[in-house]
Amino acid sequence: MAPEACNGVEYGAINEEVPSPRVNNVRKVSVLPLIFLIFYEVSGGPFGIEDSVGAAGPLLALAGFLLFPLIWSIPEALITAEMGTMFPENGGYVVWVSSALGPYWGFQQGWMKWLSGVIDNALYPVLFLDYLKSGVPALGGGLPRVAAVLALTIALTYMNYRGLTIVGWVAVLLGFFSILPFVVMGFISIPKIQPSRWLVVDLHDVNWNLYLNTLFWNLNYWDSISTLAGEVENPKKTLPKSLFYALFLVVLSYLFPLLTGTGAIPLDRDLWTDGYFSDIAKIIGGVWLSWWIQAAAAMSNMGMFVAEMSSDSFQLLGMAERGLLPEFFAKRSRYGTPLFGILFSASGVILLSWLSFQEIVAAENFLYCFGMILEFIAFVRLRMKNPAASRPYKIPVGTTGAILMCIPPTILICAVLALSSLKVMVISICAVIIGLIMQPGLKYIEKKRWIKFSIKSDLPDIHGSTEALII
Prior knowledge:
By secondary structure, the protein is mainly α. The chain contains 15 helices and no strands. The radius of gyration is 22 Å and the shape is globular.
C-alpha cells in the first residue's frame, strides 16, 4: 500500500530516503556533530560523577556506570532510534506521545520534558563556576558569581541563535578538548594505580538517593536528540548510527576517569564532590594538569549548555508546528534557529540558576521520570496500534519483547521517584499539575482566537489517519 497523509505529505517507506521536515536553505547536521551533540546532551564527560563515589564508594560507583547503561541507557537509546526514525521531525518525543495517546498527553510530555531540560541546563553554569572557583575564589558567591552566570548564559544563547550546524561543530571541538586531559591523566597515573582500591565498598554507608540520582542524571537524556530530528541529514541512517557511537563514548568517558581517580590516590569519600577531579589531577600530574581539567570542565559545560538549549528550543518549535503551542514559537531566525524557543529556554535557565547542584539534579530527575513513563507507554502503544508503520530502524523484538524491555527502566524510575525528598516531590508534582491545567487553558485561548495556533502544512497527519505512517 502506498503511504498517504494529510495535504499529500508522507514519510518515506523503509527503503526510501526519509525526509525530515525543515526550513529551506539551512544545512543539516551530519554524523560526527550529531554524535557529539548526543554526547553533550547525555554526558559531556565525567564532570559531575564525583558524587557517585562520595555516596557509595569506588566499587558501587564503577559497577553503577557499567550496569546502569544496560538497564537504562541502551533501552532508551534503542527506543529513540526507532521512534526518531519513525517520526523524523522536530518535537521528537512530543510527536511520539501525541501519535500514541493524543495531543493532550503530547502536550504534557512536552511540558515536563522541556521543564526538566531547562532545569538541567540551569545546572551547567553552577558546575562551570564550581570548577573555576578554586582558581578564581571570587566566583564562589555574591555579585561576581551572578554576573558570571548571566554573561555565560547570554554568550552561549547567542551561539545557539547563530545556527545548529555551528553548535554541532563547536560540540566536536569542545568534546576533544574536554576528553583529552583525562586520557593524559590516565596514562600518568598508571604507576600509582592500586586495583584493590577499586573494590572498596561499605553497604552500611550508602546514600542511595544521591547515588541513584547521580547515575540517573549522568546516563539519561538519550531521547533529547529526537527533538532535532527535523534538522538531521538522512535521519533513518544518521540517528541510529550516532546513538550507537555516542553510547560507547559516554560510558568510556565515565569509567576511565573513575578507574584513574579511585585507583591512583587513597580514598576519602568526603572529598568526592563535584569539582574534585581537578584536585585529583593536581595530585597525579601537578598544577598544570589541574588547570587543564578545570578548563576542560568549563568547555564541557559550555558544550552541554548549547546542546541542551538546542534540544529544548527545537522541541518548542516542533510543538508549535504541531499546533500544541502558539504559532510564534515556530518562528525561525535568519539562521534557521527557533527564535522564541531559545529566548524562553534562556529565561528559564536564568530564573533557575540559583538552585544548588543536588537540588537541580533531583528536581529534573523527578520530572524526567514522568516523561519517560509516557515515552515507554507510547513506544509499546504504537507497536500495538500501528504494527505495519514504516520504521526505518526497528528494534528486533516483537510486542512482548518491547514490553519486557521497558520493565527494568520502569522499575528504576519507581526507585528514583520513591527516594526523592519531600521538597522535590512537592515542587515537581506542582509543576505537573501546572501542565495539566495549562493545556486546556491554551485550547481555550485558541478557541477564542486570542493567539494564533496552526499545524505546519508539510507534516503528516499523526492523529486522524494511521495510513500516513504505513508502508
